[in-house]
Amino acid sequence: MELPRNLGRRVGILGGTFDPVHHGHLAVAEAVRQALALSSILFVPAFLPPHKPTYAISPFAHRAAMLDLAVADRSGFFVSRLEAERGGVSYSIDTLRTLQQTLGKEAQLFFIIGMDAFAEIHTWKANRHLLDYASFVVIGRPDHCRQSCGQTVAANFPGYTLAENQGCWQGEPGRGVIYPVAMAPMKVSSTEIREAVRQGSSIRALVPGAVADYIEAQGLYR
Ligand code: ATP
Question: How far apart are CA 132 and CA 215, in angstroms?
Fold first, then answer.
């Protein structure tokens, strides 16, 4: 598997369906990069998302091509096609293990996840082992990010306690930690964009220009 050479030592991982990528995804990536001083953000489009019906999503090649366009003029943002190269259902545990093994011990991984998805973490494959390979960065609304995060940590990650001075939950030494990052939600979703295209409305305010051009040229979401 090929990875960009210049990921650096603190690598954020943002997985998703990205059908299509939009300004909300880019804003989250930028906010986390700044909050945790990350060296790069690796966008990892899911090949077969475990939580979505496959008939409903666009071919992987289109979703990845749109991500390429979205990150083209942003230094430190990269796209990986590793979940398509692996094939099968895209489980985060397999992706994080592969990335940690490929990048080696000197790289630290930060797995970025929305509060809604984190609250469902008990349904994820090998959920506790995710922290063997990466720290979590949980994005939540400013008013209750910490509180909601704390509830999910307590219910799913025994042995993790809040280290007030570090602003994160920690478990055994050597395992990943869990950072809450508060961010006002951006009112944009891929669902809304697909619906807007179907209805003939402009999506230019919601996605990078090159992505809007691609959607138009390829006739996606009509
Ligand atoms: P869909 O509407 O098709 O369900 P989506 O817009 O939620 O898609 P995904 O590709 O499922 O996009 O999201 C990937 C990741 O980005 C998830 O962790 C999700 O929580 C996060 N995310 C998506 N939209 C936003 C947004 N507007 N603000 C903050 N985070 C977002």
Answer: 38
| Ligand 1 pocket, mutate which of 25, 55, 181 (most atoms under 8 A from CB) | 25
Split at pLDDT 50, 70, 90, the class of 185 is confident
Q: Which candidate, 19, 39, 29, 17, places its Cα nearest to that of 207? A: 19
Average pLDDT estimate for 120-136: 95
For the chain, the domains span 10-187
First CA to last CA distance, the chain: 34
Residues 51-75 as b/e (b if ≥16 CB within 10 A, e otherwise) read eeeeeebbebebbbbbbbbbbeeee
Q: List, chain by chain if needed, residues with CB within 6 Å of any ligand 1 atom.
A: 16-19, 24-25, 28, 113-114, 117, 139, 185-186, 188-191
Give me the helix-helix angle, 60-71 and 209-218, nearest 10°.
150
10-187 — its CATH code?
3.40.50.620
pLDDT at 176: 97
Counting from 1 in the atom list of ligand 1, the atom nearest the Cα of 183 is 29
Would the pLDDT of 7 be above 90? Answer: yes
Average pLDDT over residues 65-92: 97
Rg (CA), the chain: 17
Q: CA angle at residue 20 from 38 to 7, to 5 degrees?
A: 25
Specify the pTM: 0.96
Cα separation, 188 vs 220, in Å, equals: 18
